[in-house]
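Complex 250.
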Amino acid sequence: MARRPIIAGNWKMNNTIADGVKLVKELAPLVKDNKTVDIVVCPTATALAGVGEAIKGTNIALGAQNVHWEKSGAYTGEISTDMLKEVGATYCVLGHSERRDYFGETDEGVNKRARAAFAAGITPIICCGESLQIREAGNYINHVVSQVNAALDGFTAAEVAKLVIAYEPIWAIGTGKTATFEQAEEVCKAIREAVEKKFDKNAAEAIRIQYGGSVKPATIKDLMAQPNVDGALVGGAALNAKDFSEIVNF
Ligand code: PGA
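Predicted structure with 2-phosphoglycolic acid bound:
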């Protein structure tokens, strides 16, 4: 089954509303003729509405960087699915390693957030990935598969088919050290096999798996040539319209 590539820019804690609007205004004409890739930008919470307005009528979709599982209430600092839907977000990055490492995000929390997002019609982009220590100890596949299995608990196979997973080895994020294509493929393949084991073949063949970690215009083509890599989650290079457009238009 041919899976449609999905390339998302994770802006992290960068870009004010003005910066973000300027960036997507530069980006839109550079990617407007691309009909083969799902293109997503994920601004900070404060810039979501402004950027959402600026991309109306383009082929760029809006994603958030987190969402809470409750509908509303006493959850200081959190954002609800209704709030994301109001500004037109259709994707949400969840369980990024920076959330897990700096803000105590757990597998259980990622699962609750993913289920709430999906139920609200927002496609979760569920992140997983191992630290350098785990990579060097050799048990990185088990680690990543266990993160994925936990994040997918309670979903049906038909639902899993519509999700996006982002495999991001922590040692490759923002370091300029991209995983080799073989390393990316090895883990993305293992994730797909784990999805087949937990759900079924259809879910495994349909779920889209991105690679993330220092993706650049120079590395995207070879990454996308890997049979189990269906896209990229791009940090640093997504902050530059030209670079991100070259990645999208690989
Ligand atoms: P990077 O970030 O492209 O700057 O390495 C990727 C990410 O963390 O999503």
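The chain has a mean pLDDT of 97.
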